Amino acid sequence: MEDVLLRYGIIGVGMMGREHLYNLAAIPGALVVAVADPDPGSREQAVAVASALQLSRPAPPLQVFGDHGSLLDSGMCDIVVVATPNMTHAQILLDILNHPKAHHILVEKPLCTTVEDCYNVIEAAQARPEVLVQVGLEYRYIPAVAKLIEQVKINSVGRVRMVSIREHRFPFLVKVNNWNRFNKNSGGTLVEKCCHFFDLMTLIADSMPVRVMASGGQDINHLDESYHGEVPDILDNAYVVVDYENGVRGMLDLCMFAEGSRNEQEICVVGTRGKGEAFVPESIVRIGARDSGREGVLTYEVHDKRVKYEGLHHGSSFLEHLEFAAAIKSNGERPPTVGLEEGLMSVAVGVAAQQSIEFGRFVTLTEVIARKR
């Protein structure tokens, strides 16, 4: 794969966009040639990162654009990474998919902030089958999580009945113009942050979600903040229950004022034969069988030797890029691992959860995804 050079452009070089710069610098055959961002400070920081990276891996000077349209028009890139604020994803994706020059796309999660926008993007992508689109639900690639998924697939826990995910972590980080403090920009916490977990639940359940019940609130974080006279309205804790067509039940336990946690994510899968757990960032997986009890639980410390850069997400962003590059180089033989339909479903469950809290009742997925297509 190293003999094929893939030229990348990054649209949006805030914190996550710069994280992609670091990851791509460690990918064989990948070269970031251009970035675009309307924010001068973000552009300056991206140039500084690129310059530092060039010390260990010589590359042509980075081309910098103030808007994504200019980057697309340049024709410099084979692939564009969209790492802009959530509420901008839909229009930027449509601009890329409607552009005469074909660019493969890796878009950060969530695909869009609304189900309607997701459908619009999917329809535009169907008209450009030569363009590969991968959604950045990279938690699938976290080594411990991937190991747990592998164990589930080989029937180590039997037929899956329950999937529970706990994320206990720190509050949302500060972003450019504080866009992530408001539901109207982010889609809401259960879309913005938790689409990762709804994607994992659906993958492990191997079924379609049918209804969602959630309880949540904003109890601690951002209550003393104000931006242009508006107080942030994003949830900082929630419980979400998801029922699947095949009878599997999923549960999310989210708390964003729980910095005093040994692990940020704990994922538990219980089946007819036993139980599997993954702990991140400890990178430990435990597998136990009902007939062997507590003493028979096996513990694995998990590492993926392919990871050359750990970064902010325990190597998962690196592996995501590695897999997407392989899909592009396969000339259509290997589709992206996480496609647009998976991106849509992860957003739909998050939207249903947000609505469940608002309405105080179960919300069916039919209510959320019903649309004349």
TrEMBL record:
Domain of life: Eukaryota
SUPFAM superfamilies found in the cross-reference section: Glyceraldehyde-3-phosphate dehydrogenase-like, C-terminal domain (SSF55347), NAD(P)-binding Rossmann-fold domains (SSF51735)
Gfo/Idh/MocA-like oxidoreductase N-terminal domain span: 6-136
Residue ranges of every copy of the Gfo/Idh/MocA-like oxidoreductase C-terminal domain listed in the record: 150-365
PANTHER family listed in its UniProt record: INOSITOL 2-DEHYDROGENASE, PTHR43593
Annotated protein name in UniProt: Uncharacterized protein
